[in-house]
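Practice problem 4.
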């Protein structure tokens, strides 16, 4: 038997919500996954199709930690990596950190050459004595098989993925004709499949994979942070860590695959090799959702009292949830990330609704690592506005003039917030952000636009804060003398919570 393992979207270096502990979580989760791959699955090779890093611009500490973790993998277990959108985002560079790790011997960086021939991709073989900056394919030679396990890599191509897949199918066929037929073929790639995350555009259809399927036995995908499988040959393991509150829900599985190939046969042709796939959850930080309906409460004081009672009633359930084995470190529950959602109709001024104070209280009461506030409320005044708004203002020739309606709503929201003195400016910012979202501009661009406007309008509130917490929750208590819990300042930087299970 031969065992391969498949993990993706580790996003090393992601300091989620500006919290330093989340950056360390990414490394700790990868470490425990690699350890299980090597000890429990006894893997012969590791696949990582994209987003090893969260950004191409790495802090030295992240690169050092990555090299340390990869150095723990035995030399006879290749770590085969292809490039994701985060490994080289924005403008491409001639040399990336993946090239560096490849040249250092920590990984084998696989990518296709797509420029020489517009019809066919070119795949160079990996040569241990002359690795270069990357390779196109890697052969794992196995006794009893008439050909190798051949692994190809396709880098992130975005909107050009469909065209690249046709080139890849032709390139794999020509490569096999030139270098001999493999017994089993794997393709590492970084893209999303249709219907897996409805809100994600630019996905690949099954029809676009028809020619690839003729050449490939196992398509090892990354990019979508949610586990899914299709047609007994397409596999996406889900990111080891959740990267927003939606991904933290229980219906989003996270982990890695082990692929066991039956190599106790001696026949030619990849279709003859049977394999079984198992999914293994990763040990990650828990997310826990708290929902609170603001509708019944007539005053800020009444709402605050009811909220605190609700949180205290919910605490036992939270502790039980966070005590699940998949969320523990050294056998102890880890401080959760709280998805705090306010719903319903607010009966008083939005400016008197101090969500920051409520979230800080909750963070302290539950020893939470971070509280992400998500608002799903409207005020009574907004409801009144919607019921009284003049139809002649918002309807033109029988069609809804959404721009006018949005302006009125955004300005009313701003007037009822802590930013009431700048209501018109804040309304403009909200409108601009909404237009950018409708145009499907990148989340990072929308976030930067809002942050820039906030710095201009409210410079006193825009100072960045770095949270100081323990480096690593997996360090043994007896080694460093500290427990697995984390401490953090109550001040929290602002970060947009993405609604799609992939970092764009």
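Answer key:
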């Amino acid at each position: 038997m031969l065992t391969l393992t498949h993990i993706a979207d580790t996003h090393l270096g992601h300091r989620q919500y500006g919290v330093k502990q989340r950056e360390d979580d990414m490394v700790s989760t990868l470490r425990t996954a690699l350890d299980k791959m090597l000890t429990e699955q006894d893997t012969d090779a590791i696949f990582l199709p994209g987003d090893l890093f969260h950004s191409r611009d790495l802090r030295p500490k992240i690169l050092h930690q990555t090299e340390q973790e990869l150095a723990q993998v035995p030399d006879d277990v290749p770590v085969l990596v292809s490039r994701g959108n985060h490994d080289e985002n924005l403008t491409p560079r001639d040399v990336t950190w993946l090239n560096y790790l490849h040249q250092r011997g920590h990984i084998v960086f696989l990518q296709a050459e797509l420029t020489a021939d517009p019809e066919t991709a070119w795949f160079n073989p990996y040569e241990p004595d002359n690795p270069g900056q990357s390779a196109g394919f890697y052969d794992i030679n196995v006794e009893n098989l008439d050909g190798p396990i051949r692994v190809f890599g396709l880098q992130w191509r975005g909107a050009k993925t469909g065209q690249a897949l046709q080139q890849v199918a032709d390139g794999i066929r020509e490569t096999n004709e030139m270098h001999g037929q493999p017994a089993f073929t794997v393709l590492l790639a970084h893209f999303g499949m249709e219907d897996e995350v409805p809100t994600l555009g630019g996905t690949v259809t099954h029809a676009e994979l028809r020619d690839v399927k003729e050449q490939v036995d196992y398509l090892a995908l990354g990019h979508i942070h949610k586990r899914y499988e299709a047609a007994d040959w397409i596999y996406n393991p889900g990111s080891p860590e959740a990267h927003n509150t939606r991904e933290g829900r229980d219906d989003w599985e996270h982990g890695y695959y082990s692929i066991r190939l039956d190599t106790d046969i001696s026949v030619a042709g990849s279709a003859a090799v049977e394999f079984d796939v198992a999914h293994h959850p990763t040990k990650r930080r828990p997310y826990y959702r708290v929902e609170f309906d603001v509708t019944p409460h007539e005053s800020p004081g009444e709402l605050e009292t009811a909220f605190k009672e609700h949180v205290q009633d919910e605490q036992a359930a939270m502790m039980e949830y966070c005590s699940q084995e998949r969320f523990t470190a050294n056998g102890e529950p880890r401080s959760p990330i709280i998805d705090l959602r306010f719903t319903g109709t607010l009966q008083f001024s939005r400016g008197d609704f101090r969500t920051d104070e409520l979230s800080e209280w909750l963070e302290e009461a539950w020893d939470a690592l971070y509280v992400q506030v998500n608002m799903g409320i409207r005020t009574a005044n907004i409801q009144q506005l919607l019921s009284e708004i003049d139809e002649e203002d918002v309807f033109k020739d029988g069609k809804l003039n959404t721009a006018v309606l949005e302006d009125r709503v955004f300005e009313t929201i701003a007037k009822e917030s802590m930013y009431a003195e700048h209501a018109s400016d804040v309304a403009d910012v909200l409108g601009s952000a909404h237009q950018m979202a409708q145009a499907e501009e990148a989340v990072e661009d929308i976030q930067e636009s809002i942050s820039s406007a906030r710095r201009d309008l409210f410079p006193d509130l825009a100072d960045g804060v770095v949270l100081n917490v323990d480096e690593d929750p997996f360090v043994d208590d007896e080694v460093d003398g500290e427990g697995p819990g984390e401490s953090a300042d109550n001040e929290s930087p602002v970060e947009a919570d993405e609604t799609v299970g992939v970092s764009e």
